Amino acid sequence: MKITQIRNATLIVEYDNTKFLIDPWLGPKGYMPGFETAVNSEIRQPRVELPFSIDKIVNVDSVIITHIHPDHWDEYAEHAIDKNLKIFVQSEFDKNFILSKGFKDVEILAEQGTSFRNITLYKTHTQHGKREILKPLCDSIGMPYDAMGIVFILGI
Q1: pLDDT tens-digit readout, 104-121
Q2: CA torsion, points 60, 61, 66, 68, in degrees to nearest 10?
Q3: Helix/strand/coil percentages in the chain, nearest 5
Q4: What is the pTM for the complete model shown?
Q5: What are the contacts of 8-16 at 24+ separation with CB within 8 A?
Q6: How far apart are CA 37 and CA 142, in angstroms?
């Protein structure tokens, strides 16, 4: 397995000759305001430029979006990623959101495993930040608080 961190949660995971782009946050440095509840919230986000061209980053076999917060999925990703590329998400809410952006092949990952090529992906539950702070913020804009993790297993 080869893991390339792009920035924040954005990664390219290469596994069994398959490339996954995880949580594509592709906007330029400083294009959005800092996060209100974060330390140094006055610093605009993202804090660093992309280390490679967007074309190189989106040259993958599939995309995994752990959740649709703006630092895990943005309008730059929406426009750069091929609308026919396989995208995996955590929930029906996220699936409908990504489909509404014109993507054609969106699948919800299952805890009991989801096959892609010769790889089985397992959805796992995670805690995203401090629930008492983030859940009310997410609820106020109609966005789920939940996030997920992924386990990769070779062979089906």
Answers
A1: 999 999 989 899 999 998
A2: 70
A3: 20, 30, 50
A4: 0.83
A5: 8/46, 8/71, 8/72, 9/66, 9/71, 9/72, 10/57, 10/72, 12/57, 12/60, 13/152, 15/119, 15/152, 15/154, 16/117, 16/118, 16/119, 16/154
A6: 18
Per-residue pLDDT of 119-143, as tens digits, reads 998 887 765 565 565 656 556 545 5
Burial of 133 (0-12, 13-18, 19+ CB in 10 A): exposed
Query: Do 15 and 3 meet the contact criterion of CB atoms below 8 Å apart?
Result: no
- CA 30, 8, 108, 78 dihedral sign is positive
Question: Which domains does the chain possess?
Answer: 2-111 (3.60.15.10)
Across the range 39-55, mean pLDDT stands at 93
Over its C-alpha atoms, the chain yields an Rg (Å, rounded) of 15
Q: How far apart are CA 34 and CA 43, in angstroms?
A: 5
CA 78, distance to chain mean position in Å, is 11
